[in-house]
Design goal:
- The strands form three sheets. The chain has a seven-stranded mixed beta sheet with strand order 6-5-4-7-10-13-14.
- By secondary structure, it is an alpha/beta fold.
Length: 317
């Protein structure tokens, strides 16, 4: 099942806010519905957001074919629905270059979808090869947030590597950090690992570095929402702490993300707007700091695996 697709004139997504209790499919017919789904995290993950951006422009072209001003506003709404992940705006801009033809826009959006599917397979193979090289034949991995098919279209990024290792018989175990504030690790990653028949444990976020220090993990593998020109990695909040823990324990810290997530126009993590999701998601009785993402400096990153290459930013640190 695809996380996001174009079906009979509308966008269909798996509603990730309903998992793991219910596998619910949403049909989105308007840009407003899509933007709401993006902002509520019903659809999320950098590759999936890139596809959502492209399909969102197709929706806009379909609905506002005779109103250029409304079409422009709708495209901007899609592009800006979440500011941190580069893929959303990039997918929207790419599809928008084919305006005003709806057919051309839809064809481009489907091409974005198909490229992400192919990228997941390429990353899985390349990442699995690298993890065996770094850790030996049966690594025990810690992962953060959700980076499986729910974050892409199928298979995923970092979790796609986990799946590939499992398929090869080269996986000794997985720890999935719960990932505050919306428990995307405990809810989504755990659900996907269960679907694949992969044994795993869920760990509270703050336990990750301790588990590394105690020798229960061989490597950390995560995804990314943006990779800056210098190799700084923007990912779900908590990633930086895991990178620090991995460095202290002497473990590889590997990032897996499609080439479309690499942003050569953003010099460092200091230049990236970090979304804060407000206090309501955390607690109703106090003001809370609730950044959705953090910045892991490039010198803490052992390797970045894309569908096209392996980058080793820490080698230049």
């Amino acid at each position: 099942m695809r996380t996001i697709d174009w079906v009979d004139g509308a966008i269909e997504i798996i509603d990730q806010t309903a998992l793991p209790g219910e596998l619910r499919i949403l049909r989105l017919h308007t840009v407003g519905e899509l933007v709401a789904a993006i902002q509520s995290l019903a659809v999320r993950g950098a590759p999936a957001l890139g596809v959502a951006g492209a399909f969102g422009v197709a929706l806009a072209a379909k609905v506002h074919a005779d109103d250029p001003a409304a079409l422009e506003i709708a495209v901007e709404r899609v592009s800006g629905a979440r500011p941190t992940a580069v893929n959303l705006a990039r997918g929207a801009r790419r599809a928008a270059r084919r305006l005003p033809s709806f057919d051309a826009v839809l064809a481009e959006a489907c091409a974005v979808r198909d490229e992400e599917i192919a990228a997941s397979s390429a990353m899985a193979a390349r990442g699995a090869d690298l993890l065996v090289e770094l850790c030996g034949a049966r690594p025990r991995l810690l992962t953060h947030c959700n980076t499986g098919g729910l974050a892409a279209v199928t298979l995923g990024t970092a979790l796609g590597v986990v799946h590939e290792l499992h398929q090869r018989g080269h996986l000794a175990g997985v720890v999935a950090s719960e990932t505050r504030p919306l428990l995307q690790g405990a809810r989504l990653t755990s659900w996907e690992l269960s679907q694949w028949g992969i044994e795993h444990r869920v760990a509270v976020d703050s336990a990750g570095p301790f588990l590394m220090a105690r020798g229960e993990v061989d490597a950390v593998i995560v995804g990314a929402d943006r990779i800056c020109a210098n190799g700084d990695v923007i990912n779900k909040v908590g990633t930086y702490a895991h990178a620090l823990g991995a460095r202290r324990a002497g473990l590889p810290f590997v990032v897996v993300a499609p080439e479309s997530t690499v942003d050569p126009d953003t010099a460092t993590g200091l230049d990236v707007p970090i979304e804060d999701r407000g206090s309501a998601e955390v607690t109703p009785w106090a003001e809370a700091v609730n950044p959705a993402f953090d910045v892991t400096p490039y010198d803490l990153v052992t390797a970045i695996v894309t569908d096209q290459r392996v980058i080793r930013p820490s080698a230049t640190a």
